Amino acid sequence: MARYRLVGGSIGNVGVQFERKDDDREIARRVVNLLADRRMLWKDFSSEIEEHCIKSAIEVRRELGVHLDNPDISDHLADQLRLLQRLFRSFIDELDPRDLDPWGGTRHHYMGTDPMSTALGRLRGLVGVQLGTLASHYDLDLGEDLATIVPAEEGWFFERFTPDP
Predict the structure, then answer these.
(1) CA–CA separation, 147 vs 139, rounded Å?
(2) In this predicted model, what pLDDT tens digit does every residue of 46-72 receive, in sequence order?
């Protein structure tokens, strides 16, 4: 829901000017919409290309920064958005090609694991918890695709975001 603030008025021919200000729920709704458009969060791992995911993560971080620049955002929501920014930054850092073994090898990873899938799985799990928290706190609906990364264990408040079979 948007809020409005009186910023001006006139007497002759009666006029009033208002400034539209978004409340936290509206900002959170926009963040959920931003993340819902990121297929890297819900599409099959095999469909994802590392460079595209990194570009998408960079764009998410930038858009979250735009929301953080809103002077009316509450400290609580700002903390949640900063955490989301850190999660996407960690994802990018984990896949950074400059992050090589000092002995000239590749990134450290366990035998038989794909670094991209590992990083993406971690990102999805952590972002899923944050999405569940945002959706629950601000009473927002998540799309069917995005709801697949929100934990849905029985008894959790995230349970209502589980897509119906």
Answers:
(1) 14
(2) 888 888 999 999 999 999 999 999 998
